Amino acid sequence: MIENEQPALAASLWTTKAAPGPEAPALSGEVEADLCIVGGGFAGLSTALHAAEAGLDVVLIEAESLGWGASGRNGGQVLPGLKENPREVEARFGPQGTRMIECAGAAPDLVFDLIERHGISCGAMRAGWISAAMSDGLTAARDRGAQWRALGADVRDLSGPETREMLGGGYYAGALWDRRGGGVQPLSYARGLAGAAASAGVRLYSHTPARRVGHEGQWRIETPSGRVSAQRVALCTNGYSGPLLPELQRNVVPVVSIQIATDRLPRDLTPDILPQRQVVSDTRRQLLYFRRDAEGRFVIGGAGAYGGVGLSRAFRRLEAEALQLFPQLGGLAWQYGWGGRVAVTTDHLPHLAEPAPGLFTAGGFNGRGLAMATMMGRILGRRLAGDAEAEADWPLEPLRPIPLHRFHRLGVRTVIATAGLRDRLRIP
Ligand SMILES: Cc1cc2nc3c(=O)[nH]c(=O)nc-3n(C[C@H](O)[C@H](O)[C@H](O)COP(=O)(O)OP(=O)(O)OC[C@H]3O[C@@H](n4cnc5c(N)ncnc54)[C@H](O)[C@@H]3O)c2cc1C
Prior knowledge:
Layout: H1 13-17, E1 29-38, H2 42-53, E2 58-61, H3 70-73, E3 77-78, H4 86-93, H5 95-117, E4 129-133, H6 138-150, E5 155-159, H7 160-167, E6 174-178, E7 182-183, H8 186-199, E8 203-205, E9 212-216, E10 218-223, E11 226-235, H9 246-249, E12 253-264, E13 279-282, E14 289-292, E15 297-303, H10 308-325, E16 334-344, E17 351-356, E18 359-363, H11 369-384, H12 388-393, H13 408-425
Parallel strand pairs: 1-2, 1-11, 2-8, 4-13, 11-18
Antiparallel strand pairs: 3-7, 4-6, 5-6, 9-10, 10-11, 12-15, 12-16, 13-14, 14-15, 17-18
Helix pairs in contact: 2-8, 2-11, 4-5, 5-11
The protein binds flavin-adenine dinucleotide (FAD).
Flavin-adenine dinucleotide binds at residues 2, 38-44, 61-64, 68-71, 73-77, 79, 209-210, 236-242, 244, 257, 259, 289, 301, 339-342, 363, 365, 367-371, 373.
GO cellular component, one term: cytoplasm
Keywords: Oxidoreductase
Pfam families: DAO (PF01266)
């Protein structure tokens, strides 16, 4: 079992309704491959698929079931770009930054192409992403929109009344409508990627935690009832990383995010919520994100807590937030509640690393991993297969452990409390 996991958070709307995935038995005995991937979320599955398509013999092992981590639990929002604006990424990385921004901007295209190419049934909708701002966040949002438009992206400014009309409610002062975004049923998408990987020849194993990774002539990954020997290894364990590689575990802070969902909304709800089915997140520090799924349920997420009383309080707070946004939801039951770990990095960027020759890691998607982890998987999978173009897409950086990482829960609680207070007091 994954360290410190709260099992109750794993049962979600998505687990109840997801399409089945491919067969993935537990590994028993010894197997060999060119590449062993540890972790069966979007990053691991996309790496596996793209490496296999590029000709590598690939084995993927997952500690629980495929898509069990953040990938099967998220909001299903397919978002372009990174947490940081194009200008900041380019200022830090120069021409390499331009390439990173191109990859991040194109990530939703990759997701929807994969869905189409592999016939993945996952309630995909592409009506765009609304990034909604309160009055104190509007100038920054407009500036971000202008930066993306300068790069050719279809991003439109929405006034306050336009935003409220498209949402069917809310209290935002304005928004960006980024037409590249969309929504999917995330667990069905993860299982669909797994199916595509299996068809490309990847051998998938679930209920197979990697217990030790070592190098003896080649990489050897020990599991409870077997072992994988491979030339290269990719650790795609992200916010669920344990002590397998301590510097990877300490490179990200796992922050709990939770969601609640109704059943299908009644047809006569007035005003209707998100009639065109855009996905929405706001730009506050303690942000809310919400959408309707393909069957018309309303799903909303926000800051969680690490367990017990804090978690029940966080669920109640989220219900209250939902009603403040959309009073027309009053009286409807919240049928589902769940959560998972968002892997946050100190520079708000995903990290690709090679801490030892042939041992790669990818993670830290900062709540933007549906599209970006899929894209990073393509970059990593092709890179591992020797594609020089992919090598130039994203820089390798050393894994830098975050100081005082073991106190991260206390730090996160303080940051969440301060962020909420600053949002309420409108302190920039
Ligand atoms: C509640 C929530 C809402 C979110 N909403 C959105 C959203 O709407 N849009 C968006 O873009 N992003 C969202 N995110 C973020 C997104 O889900 C992640 O960025 C993305 O899923 C990361 O994928 P991953 O493959 O890197 O990691 P994960 O999906 O977390 O996969 C890691 C896997 O590694 C496995 N593992 C760990 N240790 C081992 C081991 N030793 N051996 C074998 N396997 C191991 C775990 O079991 C896990 O399945 C959200 C995240 C959460 C938690």
